[in-house]
Write a structure and sequence with these properties.
By secondary structure, this protein is an alpha+beta fold. It contains seven helices and 14 strands. Strands 3, 4, 10, 11 and 12 form a five-stranded mixed sheet that branches. A five-stranded antiparallel sheet has the order 6-7-8-5-9, with helices on one face. Strands 1-2-14-13 form a four-stranded antiparallel sheet. Helix 1 crosses helix 7, helix 3 crosses helix 4 and helix 5 crosses helix 7. The longest helix has 21 residues.
Length: 298
C-alpha cells in the first residue's frame, strides 16, 4: 500500500513499493488527464503500457508500430532523476544450466552418486574466481552477470541428481557479452566433467542461452533527445544524457526503428524494500512531459 511520508511515497510495511514503474504509468495518465481537462493542443499521441518489462521486456518485444499509428518518436518513462535522459543501454543474454548428476542414498552410498548441486556450485565458484560474476571489468571492457535462481533436489538424504540454475549476462559490447557467456558455458561444462563417482561416471550439463535485448545508442542530435533536453531545460533543470547499465523497453523500440529516449520519474532504490518515489521529482517529470507536448506541436 503506497503511503506519503514527507516528500516521499513509500510502501506501508516491509514490502516493495513498485514505484518502478508505477510512477511512469502515473505520469502518463496525469499527462492525458491534463491535456483533456485543459483542452491543450497536442500532436497525435499514442499512450503505450507494455507488460512484463521486468522479466524480459516481453510486451515491448511484441509491439507492432503500425497498430499504434506509426509514431515518429518515443518517450519512455522509466528511471530515477527527471533530468536524466537515457540515450543508450546494454545488451543482455539469459542463460540456463540444466545439470544432471546421479541420485543415491547420501548416507549409505554417497560415493556412487554425483551431486548436481556441487557441479553448479563449483561452476559458479570458477566464474567468480575468474572475475566474471557481478560487475565485470577486463581492461576497457565491462559488463555484469548474475545467478538469479537455483532449483533442485528433493530430500536431504538424497544425492541431488538434477539442478537448474538460471541467470543473465550483460554488456554494452556484443563481443564482450559473447565472452562472458562463453566463460559461463565452459565453467559449467568443465565442472560437470570433473564431477565423478566411484565408477568414473561424470555429470552432464545442458547450457542454453536466449538473447534478451540488444544495446542501443542514440545521438544527442536525435530529435527525441533534443526535444527531451529542451523540455527539461524549460522546466528549470540541466539535462543529463547518459548511457545506462540496464535494459529498458526503449531497447526494443529503438531496435524496431523507433527512436526512443527514456526519462526519469523520481523513483529510487528499485527492487528494494527501501524503494521510494520523490514527489517533487515526480511532479517535475510531469512538467517535462507537458513541455514535450508543447514543443512537438510547434
Amino acid at each position: 500500500v503506497p503511503v506519503v511520508k514527507g516528500n516521499r511515497i513509500v510502501a506501508k510495511g516491509k514490502t516493495g513499493l513498485g514505484g518502478d514503474d508505477r510512477s511512469g504509468c502515473a505520469a502518463i495518465v496525469t499527462l492525458a488527464e491534463t491535456i483533456l481537462k485543459s483542452k491543450i493542443p497536442h500532436p497525435p499521441i499514442t499512450l503505450l503500457f507494455p507488460i512484463a518489462e521486468e522479466n524480459g521486456l516481453h510486451g515491448s518485444r511484441m509491439v507492432r508500430f503500425k497498430d499504434l499509428g506509426n509514431p515518429a518518436m518515443g518517450f519512455n518513462l522509466d528511471g530515477q532523476f527527471p533530468n536524466e535522459l537515457v540515450i543508450g543501454a546494454m545488451s543482455a543474454v539469459r542463460w540456463q544450466a540444466e545439470i544432471r548428476g546421479i541420485s543415491t542414498h547420501a548416507g549409505l552410498e554417497p560415493h556412487k552418486g554425483i551431486s548436481a548441486g556441487l557441479i553448479g556450485a563449483q561452476a559458479m565458484a570458477t566464474i567468480s574466481d575468474k572475475g566474471y560474476f557481478g560487475r565485470i571489468v577486463k581492461g576497457n571492457r565491462t559488463g555484469t552477470s548474475n545467478l538469479g535462481s537455483v532449483n533442485g533436489g528433493e530430500a536431504s538424504n538424497q544425492v541431488m541428481d538434477q539442478c537448474i540454475m538460471s541467470g543473465e549476462c550483460r554488456s554494452h559490447s556484443p563481443a564482450f557479452l559473447k565472452q562472458i557467456v562463453k566463460v559461463y558455458k565452459t565453467s559449467f561444462e568443465q565442472a560437470a566433467q570433473s564431477a565423478t563417482n566411484d565408477k568414473g561416471r561424470s555429470g552432464k550439463v545442458k547450457f542454453t542461452t536466449i538473447s534478451d535485448y540488444n544495446a542501443f545508442r542514440l545521438k544527442k542530435s536525435e530529435p527525441c533527445v533534443k526535444i527531451a533536453s529542451q523540455a527539461v531545460e524549460t522546466a528549470g533543470k540541466k539535462p543529463n544524457p547518459l548511457v545506462m547499465d540496464a535494459g529498458l523497453d526503449a531497447n526494443n523500440f529503438n531496435e524496431k526503428g523507433l527512436p526512443t529516449v527514456t526519462l526519469g520519474t523520481g523513483s529510487h532504490k528499485f527492487h528494494q524494500v527501501e524503494e521510494y518515489v520523490d514527489i517533487r521529482e515526480y511532479l517535475f517529470a510531469c512538467k517535462v512531459l507537458l513541455n514535450i507536448v508543447h514543443l512537438t506541436i510547434q
